[in-house]
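Hello, quick one for you while I still have it in my head. No rush at all, and the record is pasted right below.
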Amino acid sequence: MAEQDLIRFLNKISQLQLLAERVQNDSSSHDQLAACADHNQVVQLAQSWGFNIGRRWGERDHAPGGEANLLATPCPPPGEESTRVLASAETWRLLLIASNGYLSPHDEWMDQSDHEWVLVLRGSACVALQNPDRIVDLSPGDHLLIPPHQRHRVERTDPDPGTLWLALHWDATSAR
């Protein structure tokens, strides 16, 4: 582990210890934390109290390299997604999707005629699938293959700096 990473790691431990102390000594803080439903809510609450616990292992303060570096992709406004076509041909396209606290509209399901493979590069996401019904939590490095007509929806993505993912779509007829 590089010295810089060790310092960040130890700082996060310190922040978590101070947060735990606050929650143990203040019943109102305890109740607020207990009401959190997921990681993002815990991070936001802790941030409102002045604790910085949200950065995951290996995340940079900034991503060098400008536009050529996919990890430098800016986060869209809260509640939104942005999509950029990185490459495409007649039967396929590779997309870069940046999400900021995005979720699919209530009771709306995506039903695509093509295959979709997604890979989370930064942040995390939760995807709901139907038939069979299941929930898939994705973190950096996790991927998911969604076959044609598999109804699915985004249940959650991280707030700023957001969730960044690659999505490869290809025509179902070209997969033979």
